[in-house]
Design a protein that fits this description.
- The chain is built from five helices and five strands, in the order H-H-E-H-H-E-E-H-E-E.
- The protein is of the alpha+beta class.
- The protein has a domain at about 65-135: 3-Layer(aba) Sandwich (Pathogenesis-related Protein p14a).
- The model is unreliable at about 1-15 (pLDDT under 50).
Length: about 140
């Protein structure tokens, strides 16, 4: 029984470690550095907005057991689908990536909520919002 509890605590700590603000922020700032964009700062206010939004979307979640790091890595992998010259996605969805690297975004807040059947909903929000603007 004690071994199970230690294993459970370790797995919980490992999962939480991949969902910490510093995890979301580090991956975002790595993607931004690759394209010469200044780093963002974590915002608890933006994170609270993301948490409220995630809770609203909870019934629609279908993402498997993802950590926050998994989600951000998936979004960063959209980079090859973005054409900087035209500021458009080419060959697929790249909107997550473009949000990560918008030059004018200075604050980040993310949330992850568990949903039915071991699914997750992970969301990040940016301040100021820049939907549709050029990078």
């Amino acid at each position: 029984m004690a071994a199970f509890m230690v294993t459970s605590i370790f797995l919980l700590a490992l999962t939480n470690a991949q969902n910490a603000p510093s995890d979301y922020l580090a991956l975002h700032n790595r993607a931004r550095a690759q394209v010469g964009v200044d780093p963002m700062q974590w915002s608890n206010t933006v994170a609270a907005y993301a948490q409220a939004y995630a809770k609203k979307r909870k019934p629609q979640a279908t993402t498997p057991e993802f950590t926050g790091k998994d989600a951000v890595k998936l979004w960063a992998n959209e980079k090859p689908l973005y054409d900087h010259a035209s500021n458009k996605c080419v060959g697929g969805e790249c909107g997550h990536y473009t949000q990560m690297v918008w030059r004018s975004s200075v604050r980040l807040g993310c949330a992850r909520v568990p949903c039915k059947a071991n699914s997750q909903f992970v969301v990040c929000n940016y301040d100021p919002r820049n939907w549709g603007k050029a990078l």
